[in-house]
Write a structure and sequence with these properties.
about 60% helix
């Protein structure tokens, strides 16, 4: 019987998207851009239950405080 092996080192499009969104959030030059990225993350979270991307964005903005 075959078994499945999880390959954690392989990049996924989901990981790339999440990374890109975090980069865009951190690089946002104004609050309107930040809110737009947060809204996109909220839509992503609604469609993809699991680890919340909005939480990652907010934590990434805290820097050393987190």
């Amino acid at each position: 019987m075959p078994t499945l092996t999880l390959i954690t080192s392989a990049p996924s499009s989901d990981a790339a998207y999440r990374t890109d969104l975090i980069r865009r959030y951190v690089a946002a030059s104004d609050e309107f851009t930040e809110l737009a990225v947060l809204a996109e993350a909220a839509r992503y979270d609604e469609a993809n239950p699991g680890a919340a991307l909005t939480d990652e964005l907010i934590a990434s903005g805290l820097g050393d405080v987190a």
